[in-house]
Design goal:
By secondary structure, this protein is mainly alpha-helical. The protein has one domain. Helix 2 runs antiparallel to helix 3.
Length: 99
């Protein structure tokens, strides 16, 4: 679940950091894209691997809900990363066509 939260939060945090520091362009927030996608994929893999352990140990203490929430956050983080990738690619194409 923690990696799912990281996957969702990386890009908004990167954008906010570009706003806080003068001289840093918004396009430099693109460094967060691979971090978000990697954290999302890793969270999905951890959720898949944890399913069996949760069934054996923590199913009664909302372990299954945590897996579902982690999986949802991981997919959301991957989607945010893909949307950010598309926006960066469109921006680069527009900049190149402008010249």
């Amino acid at each position: 679940m923690l990696l799912g939260i990281v996957a969702v939060a990386v890009i908004p945090v990167a954008i906010e950091l570009t706003r806080r520091f003068p001289g840093v362009a918004l396009i430099e927030a693109a460094w967060g894209i691979p971090v978000a996608v990697a954290a999302g994929v890793t969270a999905l893999l951890f959720a898949r691997g944890a399913r069996g352990a949760i069934v054996r140990t923590l199913e009664r203490s909302s372990g299954a809900r945590r897996i579902r929430l982690g999986r949802f956050l991981a997919v959301a983080g991957i989607c945010i990363g893909c949307a950010a990738t598309i926006s960066v690619v469109v921006y680069e194409v527009l900049v190149r066509l402008e010249h």
